[in-house]
């Protein structure tokens, strides 16, 4: 009887399956969506869904709450993520994503998405490593392009001059031979 009861209860409740990318790269100062989708064996609604997003800085074990969702979005009232996180998910679409606003290098770290859909229980959380990079400065790219382009142009000009001089010399030799040949025919 115990085995049958366990079998029945395991059919009634199961773990939520969570899918996230393993890494996201964002440019400093932009908004970035951290995608988290899930599968549940039970119908999903705003009332049955609970989502927790946590943040762990690089080389640290301490976690900070980023956002909590239960019937509505509950962002933090203080700390790093105050006014810097928005709910982007949809219970109907089985989406528990968030958007981080105006990210900076202080946002680098690991983000964990945890989802519970009652009566299913929380499965293994999805982890995303966020890397915030600086914008490439246009002047640096421009300087590099100008250096490479300028070098190529100089090489082409030098090759053009060398080819032009060789062509001119060859033509002069041909004209000298022609004049010399014509000069011999005039002597006879």
TrEMBL record:
<feature type="domain" description="Ig-like">
    <location>
        <begin position="14"/>
        <end position="134"/>
    </location>
</feature>
<keyword id="KW-1015">Disulfide bond</keyword>
<protein>
    <recommendedName>
        <fullName>Ig-like domain-containing protein</fullName>
    </recommendedName>
</protein>
<dbReference type="InterPro" id="IPR007110">
    <property type="entry name" value="Ig-like_dom"/>
</dbReference>
<dbReference type="InterPro" id="IPR036179">
    <property type="entry name" value="Ig-like_dom_sf"/>
</dbReference>
<keyword id="KW-0472">Membrane</keyword>
<dbReference type="InterPro" id="IPR000920">
    <property type="entry name" value="Myelin_P0-rel"/>
</dbReference>
<comment type="similarity">
    <text>Belongs to the myelin P0 protein family.</text>
</comment>
<dbReference type="GO" id="GO:0005886">
    <property type="term" value="C:plasma membrane"/>
</dbReference>
<keyword id="KW-1133">Transmembrane helix</keyword>
<feature type="transmembrane region" description="Helical">
    <location>
        <begin position="141"/>
        <end position="165"/>
    </location>
</feature>
<keyword id="KW-0325">Glycoprotein</keyword>
<dbReference type="InterPro" id="IPR003599">
    <property type="entry name" value="Ig_sub"/>
</dbReference>
<keyword id="KW-0812">Transmembrane</keyword>
<dbReference type="Pfam" id="PF07686">
    <property type="entry name" value="V-set"/>
</dbReference>
<dbReference type="GO" id="GO:0098609">
    <property type="term" value="P:cell-cell adhesion"/>
</dbReference>
<dbReference type="InterPro" id="IPR013783">
    <property type="entry name" value="Ig-like_fold"/>
</dbReference>
<keyword id="KW-0393">Immunoglobulin domain</keyword>
<keyword id="KW-0732">Signal</keyword>
<dbReference type="InterPro" id="IPR013106">
    <property type="entry name" value="Ig_V-set"/>
</dbReference>
């Amino acid at each position: 009887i115990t085995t049958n009861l366990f079998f029945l209860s395991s059919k009634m409740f199961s773990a939520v399956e969570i899918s996230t990318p393993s890494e996201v790269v964002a440019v400093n100062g932009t908004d970035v969506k951290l995608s988290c989708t899930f599968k549940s064996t039970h119908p999903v609604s705003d009332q049955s869904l609970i989502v927790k997003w946590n943040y762990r800085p690089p080389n640290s074990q301490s976690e900070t709450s980023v956002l909590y969702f239960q019937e509505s979005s509950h962002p933090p009232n203080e700390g790093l993520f105050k006014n810097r996180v928005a709910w982007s998910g949809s219970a109907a679409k089985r989406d528990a994503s968030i958007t981080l606003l105006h990210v900076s290098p202080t946002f680098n770290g690991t983000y964990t998405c945890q989802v519970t859909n009652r009566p299913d229980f929380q499965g293994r959380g999805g982890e995303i490593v966020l890397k915030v990079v600086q914008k490439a400065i246009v002047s640096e790219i421009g300087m590099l392009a100008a250096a490479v382009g300028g070098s190529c142009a100089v090489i082409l000009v030098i090759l053009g001059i060398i080819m032009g001089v060789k062509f001119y010399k060859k033509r002069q030799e041909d004209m000298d031979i022609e004049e010399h040949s014509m000069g011999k025919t005039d002597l006879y």
